[in-house]
Design a protein that fits this description.
With 167 residues, the chain is α/β, with parallel strands linked by helices. The protein contains seven helices and five strands, in the order E-H-E-H-H-E-H-E-H-H-E-H. The protein has a five-stranded parallel β-sheet with strand order 2-3-1-4-5, with helices on both faces. Helix 1 (18-29) packs across helix 7 and helix 3 (56-72) runs parallel beside helix 4. The termini are close together. The mean pLDDT is 87.
Length: 167
Amino acid sequence: MAGARGPLVVMGVSGAGKTTVGERLAAVLGVEYADGDAFHPAANVAKMSAGVPLDDADRWPWLDAVGDWLARRPGGVVSCSALKRSYRDRLRSAAPGVFFLELDVPRAELVRRLTTRSGHFMRVRMLDSQLSILEPLAADESGARIDAGGAIGEVVERARVAVPPDG
């Protein structure tokens, strides 16, 4: 089903639901999925686990690894924060035709989600640093912003409808 459609990036700040939406969307579309967090080098994970926000120098090698994955899987889905346009531009340079799905969630809900999940390196105290650098998708970028509130099935359906058709 992925045919000629380009790769997809499910993007947003921590707690937006990137992994859950990405996994389920990939299953619905019948394509491969990867969690962008898996591409972080150990040093990045250690920084974030210690509550230290990453800077651009930390992010470039990570984004290059995500971009390489996207380039090799034309119809795949990856979850990746892609908070700044320059980060998305870097992914686009590696995988032209990538389509971004920006998950939109109110801050209060993000805090609730981050404080109730376990086993993840991202801490709620780092949310504001992500929100402060978030550059929402611009009108000239290939992508869609979707409401990621409500039941997960509804969010995945909104994402599926937003994805351009094959061909």
